[in-house]
Amino acid sequence: MDTFQPKEECEDIQIVTVTGLGRGRGFAVKERQSILELDDSDEILERISEATLGILNFLVENDVLTNQEIVEGLGLQYEDD
Fold first, then answer.
1. 3-state secondary structure string, 16-49?
2. Which residue range(s) make up the domain with 40?
């Protein structure tokens, strides 16, 4: 968890191809590609969107975030019905 930086801005989603360095020696990055460069990115982005909404719903249901905080975090205006 020491290297987990959830507050860093996410301006792109990268597909990373790695290769193994041998047993117990870890991995090396072979290739990086923006998800937006893929021909089938719409399907992948839709799945990420659904997962993101599920996570946001989980956070609201467990009183970690409010709907207002989510809307404001997205830079939108909040209208309480």
1. EEEEECCCCCCEEEEEEEEHHHCCCHHHHHHHHH
2. 14-73
Global pTM value: 0.64
15: Cβ–Cβ under 8 A, 6 or more apart, which residues?
32, 33, 34, 35, 38
CA atoms of 81 and 15, how far apart (whole Å): 39
Q: What is the pLDDT of residues 45-75, one digit of tens each?
A: 899 999 999 999 999 999 999 999 999 888 8
CB 27 within 8 A of CB 19: yes
In a domain, 78, yes or no: no
Q: How far apart are CA 40 and CA 34, in angstroms?
A: 12
Structurally, how many domains does the chain consist of? 1
User: Tokens representing 38?
Assistant: 């893929």
